[in-house]
Amino acid sequence: MNLYIYTFHRFHPFFILNINNKQLNYSNTKINKLISIKWQLILKNEGSFTKALNALTGKKIKVKMSQKYNYKCKNISRNIRCVWLENSLYTKLIFARSLWLFIYNNNINIELIKNRPVGNSFIEHEIDIYRNIHELYYGYSEYLEKNFIRHQAIWGRKYTLYYSYNSYVIIQEFFSPYIVNLFN
One short Pfam family name for this protein (predicted)? Predict the structure, then answer.
């Protein structure tokens, strides 16, 4: 199975773990055998990962928009957003792609997410969300390896964010192998 990052750039997984949040506990032996503790802390993170990166690096994390599409049909707006999260040294740490579904009468303002980290935006505006992690992947992508400047396998995850019991965004994140060095 190939996951497309952009139309012409693929992520080739060595394996995909289809999971739900109940399976993400730290006593799950299948996950513990496959994934190191440091990577588990990254992949299982339930809070704002940008805030966690700020704490680990002691530096502000920047959001660099690489693609954004907005499709409108009747009273529904779909937004696709692709961003890089970088530290102040322009080291790319995460590539994230998100698909947003907005119905115009909802309480989430699309302006919240413009050029800002998603998690930080929700926290700052005191919007209570729930995250359901669906998949963890491990694989490679020439495009991501080139941008991360690391020729190593890459971890990723896919999850949905819910607000008021409705799904609003599906997010895929791909993590630079460099991130694990921040724990040393």
Answer: Rv2949c-like
